[in-house]
Amino acid sequence: MSLGQHAFGRAGLPRWLAERIWGLEHAFERARASGRAEDDTRLRIFFVLVLFSLGFLALAYGATRAALFSDAAKASGIVSPLGASRADLVDRNGRLLARDLTHYGLYIDPREIWDQNETRRALLSILPNLEADRLERALRGKRRIFVLGALTPAERNRVHELGLPGVTFEPEQRRVYPLGPSAAHIIGFSDAGGEGLSGAEAAFNDEIREAATGSGTVPLSIDLRVQGALEDELWKSVAEFQPKGAVGLVTDVHTGEILGLASWPVFDPNKPGRAGVYAQTNRAAATIFEMGSTFKAFTVAIGLDTGVATPSTRFDATHPFQIGYRTIKDYHATHAVLNLVEVFQHSSNIGTARLAMGVGPARMEQYYKALGLTTPAKVELIESARPLTPKTWDQDAIASTSFGFGLNVSPLALARAYEPLLNGGRLVPLTIRRLEPGAKVDGPRVMSEKTSLEMLSIMRANVTGGSGKSANIEGLYVGGKTGTGNKYDPATRRYSNVKQVSSFAAVFPTTGGVKDKRYFVLILMDEPGRGRLGIDPTGGIAAAPVAGRVIERIAPFLGVKRQGANVPQAVPVEQPVSAEASDGQ
User: Fold this and answer.
1) Distance between alpha carbon 374 and the CA centroid of its chain, in Å?
2) pLDDT at residue 579 greater than cutoff 50
3) pTM confidence score
4) β strands within 430-490, DSSP E
5) Which positions ≥6 away from 3 have C-beta within 8 Å?
6) Distances (CA, A) of 273 to 186, 192, 250, 286
7) Domains plus CATH for the chain?
8) Nearest to 290 by CA among 363, 446, 397
9) How far apart are CA 225 and CA 308, in angstroms?
10) Positions marked active-site
């Protein structure tokens, strides 16, 4: 006999078990030989009981091992039967934005139904979302079939209480967004399988799933108080001007945190399928615009940073500016010689183009790239759109882009590019992730602190005495720049006289040093109507007042207190001098 046969016996069983079986069989034989049949029966019953006991012990051992030592138990302590769980999303203060809740799917097995008419009537009477055609197909079918999903526990109980044969339920996880359309574009939504499809749900998909295993939460950067005020004021303006689309943004210029993001039209992430793609589109991230005169802030800052101009440098805006075949005119024509601050206040295309020519195409292109205007906005959102830039950075391109034409960017890209102008000169990434209080975020230096302080002063001057007057809020020292850009019409291959993008880029407070608390606000209206006043809905009419009202409402939430009327600016604007600047050629 081999070693294997010796150890396991001829039947392949362990030797000790084989010996026990043969011993029992010999006992049966002895019982039969002695004529005591009852002993033989007892032994056989006992043998069957032993086998069943051993089987149950093996099953119990396997179940215990799976529960205590499997990878699933190690990961979470709870094994969910409902699919991929997702952690709660909360705002920066812990307020709930999204959560997984157990819902139920309704199933019908027509083979078990006693009365089809009664089942049909009862279900349709208490389930308004149940499609009659779908129910009818299920009732006339030949097998159990899914009929309706996402029943709440209350709805499930109402159906269950009817006691209808053939009507059953199965639990299913469903992502719930308690705020409905509010903040929908930044929160996003996920599919039935637990996969994030847009917004933060997609941007942090893996992190949200991982946090669910530890019953954690994923905090976003938005503040629901700021978000609520932003949406409320933006929707009021939308109701008045009836635009094609609208955007509202509030960011911290030092950390890049997005404190509020609104996009119109809106949709309900609880029922995303009911909204079209147009409503689901995050216009702050995924839509690009020619931003008009809000770009003049970049041109002025570049002029200051390169030393081509100072706040007192003069520019001749007495007549249109000719560049090759192009003639550049002013919307707010002054027919005067303007210093740089006045160029900004009057939103002079002529003065801005002359400044850009002085800087030159090479340096202007270099600054645009450094400001992130030639790449998608750096933010976690997968919707961040690629800009449309000039093919050649020549004088014509620089003249156009200097006042916001010929370069299409997303509102988020504009917001990020404004940061160095307002925070001391550094370009930091935008984020929808809440950062810890006091977090220091660094980025490449794009401009000097001196330039940033001068821009704060110039933007403040535009609100006190320029095109942004309607955004002024007493004591909060609002600065900003209006933008009104006619939209290019592909059908006519020229710019429209009636379709425009009206916007206002704001900052508050403009007082203090470069490291002091400071916030950026952007309001944009895409193709606004004339509103109740029946006048041209420029950035100063359709957007600047909205920004002012938003700032007044959110300042207390952000810890910005009203200041006295005589608080000085960060850097006083220089008085005009007599020397005129050249055409910059």
Assistant:
1) 21
2) no
3) 0.80
4) 479-489
5) none
6) 17, 12, 28, 19
7) 3-69 (no CATH), 88-220 (3.90.1310.10), 227-554 (3.40.710.10)
8) 397
9) 43
10) 293
